[in-house]
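If your schedule permits, I should be very grateful for your opinion on a structural question. Thank you for your consideration; the sequence and its tokens are set out here:

===
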Amino acid sequence: MESILEGARERPGGDERIDVDPRSLPAALERAEADGRVPVIAEVKPTSPTAEGTREADPVDLAEAMVDGGAAAISVLTEPSHFGGTPDALRRVREAVDVPVLRKDFLLREAHLDVVEADLVLVIARFVDDLEGLVSAARERGFQPLVEVHDRGELEAALEAGAEIIGVNNRDLARLEVDLATFESVAPHVPEDVTLIAESGISSPADVRRMRAAGADALLVGSAIMDHGADDEVDVAANTRRLTTVERRPETETETQTTHDESENA
């Protein structure tokens, strides 16, 4: 993780301030719910430090397949060294789809916002020195900031910074370990008027039901849709549809235990 952050510190920002007319994420999530779909933010992620391989398919083709599969929004990695992303890939994806597009990167200072237009930008609370300042700077440009947290302390910092969209990352970025109980421990403390997103580790319909039962308004899913261990012929639309068409139902005590077991073994 330190090498990723070091690379982010060294990367320059944009030359001119960006002004964005964003597509609303909350509205997109509401449309998905109204259509009977689970609101999923599907992620175009060529590779990652935890992936088993690299997907060489065109990012636009992948994003369009995800939307065909019911994705309410698209996330695009723009970090180049460890995730294989580029700002140009995001630009092309946003031109091709009509849903909100999230720029996922390690944004550390205001100038990093001025690289490429997106509807949302990821702001990771753990890594930003002036969280309130960066959230405000993003809003001033028209971005919807998605503030990512991992525990109660980071949640409080995000709320104090005025975050209205919060993602709880089930992956501990220090150890890269995933535990869906992370979301379950943080979610009860998130105000109802905040849009709440569960991130990482969601790979099965059981995981979807578990996160939705814990209060997730949407799910951010990357690897389970991209399927980095497969070849480029994998059906990304089908992978997306598998997670957007899960029916929410009350869990019995037995089902809850099964769900936990399935998640741990995924």
Observations:
- Residues 252-260, 262-266 have pLDDT under 50 and may be disordered.
